[in-house]
Amino acid sequence: MSRSNLGARIELISPSARAVRFPAVSDILAITNRIMILIDGAKYNKEALPIMKCYLMAVKEAIDVQHDGIDEEYTLELVKALEEWERFLEQYTKPKMKTLLVKLQNNLQIDKKIRGLFDKLDKALNDARLEVELEDNAKLREYIKIPREKTHDTGGCCMMDIDDNLPTTIRPDSTSIKDDMKKAFEDDFVTTACFHGLPLPPEKLNNLKVDPTWVHSIPDAQYNGVGPEKVVYCGGSHAAKIKIAHEGEDISRYWVRAYISSQLNTDLFMRNYGILLENGVYYMITEWPEVGTLSKYLADHTDIPWGQRIGIATRLARALAICHSKYILHHDIRSHNVTVGKNNIVKLGNYHRTRHTKDITTSVAEESDGVRWLCPEKVVDGSRPYSMAADVYSFGMLMWEISSHKIPFTDKTVGEVYTLLKDSAKFKDKDAPRPPIIPGTPKKYENIMKRCWRQDPGTRPNMAYVLKKLERLDEAYRKNSHEPDTMYWTGTTSMPDSEPQHEPITIYSARKLHTEKRHAEAFKQFKSLADDENPNAEANFYVGRYLIDSRIGYENDPNVGISYLEIADQLGFHDALQYRAQEKMAAATELRKKFIEAGKLDDAALVMERMKTECLPMFREGAERGNLRCMKDLADYGAKLGDKQSYVDGLKMLDNIVKTTKDPKQKAKAQDFLVKLQQHKDTFMD
User: Torsion over CA of 354, 356, 358 and 363, rounded to 10 degrees?
Assistant: First the structure.
């Protein structure tokens, strides 16, 4: 008799229990309610606490429904177990615990304590003849069904499957990684490589250890000790055996690389089988590209029909969109890192630099040939964190490679490309240095490509948008083309489905979550609506806000946020333009302030001029659409920047609203803005 919609089934299985009223039910339910409030208020370890709450809700529901017939003597044990949960959580949620948590993050004290709490409550439920079955909840099973005597030291707080969309504040101690990774193959559990800021699950890393008996050398293969060796992997598949390090060296980054590959386990990505330790040497075992790289393939096949080129670009866009949907940045998108296998199937590969969006990386190597695909903002400012917009720029360059069969800027040296991009800050899109458009390139393909490599990262589209456009173009070519479909295969692997929801996702449900400040859930719904085949304009606006506004307290990625705002504006949600202009103005104001403090007055003046030429036109455009805030900002910032025309025009627009509108709310708001703008009345005395 199922009693819970949370995947946990609790049944009363003792027919012999005395049918007496459960006297402490109100006390127990009150304790569970207090515990849930504490869990909701906790700021640390967002992995374990939702599991505790999920289990507690199942327990509460069972007690609430089935309290008749349970022995009175067992209520005391339940109360004691729950009171221990409450005491622990009261301490756990205090601000002063932050320092303690940081100290404990590399040992099992917290994890053992939580498991102990589950043990005691589990025992009390068993004594009361309540059986908990966790058939549909893997995370609960992990805590409650794991034999306690087999628990290993995991080196982290709560080791379990990582939820890509769940923000966490606990970070592993990086100093322990190098020491512990040396023991990776000696221990049953490999535990210290980190992803999304948390130690990787030990059971997943164990699955990435390659058994030496599964790999066999090919006697006739020519191998000179340089580059990957072709071998036979378990099952007869050809694989590449790549030397990465000697035993005792730090290989944590390779564990992350293998783990990322395991998270991208579709036919769109080159497969990574794991890490092999053989004769004191670590090897990475990956899928063998039967044909080679896309770079070589394009050089060898210069007559690929356009329909097939579009198909290749669409397949790779789908792969990168999946990466970004999991908040994974590739960092090195180019044809050299795309493999071509059997039947000429292209796959995205080489996760050497791939990492999570929260992992900040800034280095740029001037001598690296990768600068040909690198976004100009990273060349100009090497300290700037890498972003999804940077991946999108590189994808635009990859699209050009597919169109031209050449590498970008092939007529220039690496140093010349670096200098060219470094000097590009003063350029607009139409003048920015980009490879020439190849004659015969379809106009829609060209437009997508140009949007990807826009100079301002904030105006580049996200990959979900790029994929949608390419899929439509690919579909059109398939319908209207008679080209033989033998040189490429786009595949049918789609974007990962969103998690099943108990209620349908609508803009109203997302708004409600946002109003309730349940930001993680709200963001997930807004993003689902924004990335839909028919994207919602308001959802794009809110995704942009979440990624930009630090006050919301969500994960920030302003560059990606700006692109969502741009799409919201294009879809008709015109508040997005005002918000985007405000953010641009705020960033410029902060930069100008720093220049003034540093005595760089010429630079400060240049920033102010750009504020006039770039931000004020955005406010004017919004004002002309009837946006009252843009009218107010046009006048406000016009006065602050000494632009009399903008100031006067903004005032006139607001005054016209007051005189002509029949909407009392609009009229009152316009009047309020006019009153506030009186502070600038002496700015232009003439």
Answer: 0
Task: Please state the pTM of the whole predicted model.
Answer: 0.46
Domain 212-287: give its CATH architecture.
2-Layer Sandwich (3.30)
Domain extents in the chain: 9-150, 212-287, 294-480, 507-680
Query: 507-680: which CATH architecture?
Result: Alpha Horseshoe (1.25)
What span, in angstroms and rounded, lies between the C-alpha atoms of 276 and 263?
19
Q: Are the C-beta atoms of residues 587 and 580 closer than 8 Å to each other?
A: no
Cα 427 from Cα 431, distance rounded (Å): 6
Q: In what helix (H) or strand (E) does residue 199 lie, and over which residues does it extend?
A: strand 198-199
At position 434, the amino acid (one-letter code) is: R
Q: Which two tokens stand for residue 582?
A: 């405000």
Q: What is the DSSP string of 110-162?
A: HHHHHHHHHHHHHHHHHHTTEEEE-TT-HHHHHHHTS-GGG----SSS-----
Pick the closest to residue 303 from 400, 446, 440, 405 (CA basis): 405
Alpha-carbon distance 556 to 280, whole Å? 42
* Spatial separation of the C-alpha atoms in residues 480 and 271, rounded to whole Å: 34
Residue holding tokens 């490589």?
Answer: 193
* Token pair listed for 17: 């229990």
DSSP one-letter string for 279-310? TTEEEEEEE--SSEEHHHHHHH-TT--HHHHH
φ and ψ at residue 332, rounded to 5 degrees: -150, 55
Q: pLDDT means per 10 residues in the chain (686 residues)?
A: 30 34 60 75 58 71 59 69 78 48 41 70 70 48 40 28 27 32 36 45 66 70 57 68 72 74 76 80 81 87 89 92 80 88 82 43 48 83 77 93 90 82 71 84 92 85 89 85 48 42 71 84 85 79 81 63 79 81 80 82 81 85 87 88 88 90 86 85 64
Alpha-carbon distance of 388 to 685, in angstroms, equals: 47
**CA separation for the pair 275, 284 (Å, rounded):** 5
Tokens 């394009």 locate to 298
The label of the residue with tokens 């970070």 reads 171
601-610 vs 575-597: helix axis angle to the nearest 10? 170
CATH among 3.30.110.30, 1.10.260.40, 1.10.510.10, 3.40.50.920 for 294-480: 1.10.510.10
Q: What is the CA radius of gyration of the chain?
A: 29
Torsion of CA 526, 531, 532, 538, to 10 degrees: 50
C-alpha angle 148/152/153, rounded to 5°?
Answer: 125
3-class SS of residue 312: helix
Residue linked to tokens 């694989």: 239
Residue 4 CB neighbour total at 10 angstroms? 20
Measured CA distances, 66 to 20, 32, 102 (Å): 12, 16, 41
CA-nearest of 295, 291, 306 to 345 is: 291
